[in-house]
Design a protein that fits this description.
Shape: globular
Distance between the termini: 43 Å
Largest sheet: 6 strands, parallel
Oligomer: single chain
Number of strands: 12
Helix content: 25-40%
Number of helices: 9
């Protein structure tokens, strides 16, 4: 009987672990597998009152459009212009070496985005280091050099957010961070559909449609959408995407507008599925 009781206790424990595992995995399909889920904070947060908030108190459906790896003097500016047509704003996670001119002279594009009311945030300096693998010295340099590049070009900007390259960062670095760590819930996978030399108009349209469908098939109130503002195909997709989101009653906002008072440093945010 003791053996049977012990067996039942073990079986019960295994079932509990399985349920918890499934619960943790729900809705995280776009969070890199290398990231432990401990410390992740849902963008749609349930308050102590039992009310649900998307950070802004708006009755509209709201989504945050985020764009990584820029700025780009052509495509960043064109995306900003397209956002402005709808009075929308996005969050641009920039690379420091593209802002300060070390790798690419994109500082004017970042300023253009900021002056149009868009949010500027840190992605990294080189895009060559994962923040769950690099040394402390490298990690601190990636962040400090990027913030310096941003503020040297646009001193008025307040840098509150950071998205690690590949979404990869240790839990310890999250909790000790002076920034809010922003993940995503809807991956456009736009980098897979970059235009190639010789693409026909039909081939380009097929790629744009793929990007747009990747977003529209997964988007919902509170989503954080991942794109990259360094590709012509992404710009073309944004034109179509913004029209679709607008027609379906979505408001496109910055991450800080989406989260509002729920946003604080030392935590990772994603959209709860």
């Amino acid at each position: 009987m003791k053996s049977k009781g012990r067996y039942l206790r073990i079986l019960t424990l295994l079932l509990v672990v399985a349920v918890l595992f499934c619960s943790c995995k729900k809705g995280d399909g776009n969070i890199p597998e290398s990231n432990d889920e401990e410390g992740l904070v849902p963008v749609i947060a349930t308050l102590a009152t039992g009310e649900t908030t998307n950070g802004g108190g708006s009755e509209k459906k709201r989504v945050a459009l985020t764009l990584d790896d820029g700025p780009h003097n052509v495509y960043t500016k064109k995306i900003v212009d397209e956002l402005s047509k709808y009075q929308y704003h996005a969050t641009f996670f920039v690379l420091g070496n593209r802002v300060d001119g070390t790798s690419y002279s994109g500082g004017s594009a970042m300023i253009y985005a900021a002056e149009a009311g868009n949010e500027i945030a840190i992605h990294g300096y080189t895009h060559k280091l994962y923040f769950d693998k690099c040394s402390d010295e490298e990690y601190k340099s990636e962040l400090s050099r990027t913030e310096k590049a941003i503020k040297d070009k646009y001193p008025a900007v307040s840098v509150r957010l950071m998205r690690p390259v590949g979404g990869r960062i240790t839990n310890e670095r999250v909790t000790e961070s002076e920034y809010s760590i922003i993940m995503w819930s809807v991956d456009s996978e736009d980098w897979k559909y970059k235009y190639k030399s010789g693409d026909t108009d039909a081939a380009k349209k097929e790629k744009v449609d793929a990007i747009v469908n990747n977003v529209m098939n997964g988007v919902s109130d509170g989503s954080i959408i991942l794109m990259h503002d360094i590709y012509e195909s992404t710009y073309d997709a944004v034109v179509v995407l913004l029209e679709k989101l607008h027609s379906e009653g979505y408001e496109v906002v910055t991450v800080s507008e989406l989260l509002g008072s729920d946003l604080h440093a030392g935590a990772r945010y994603y959209r709860e599925g």
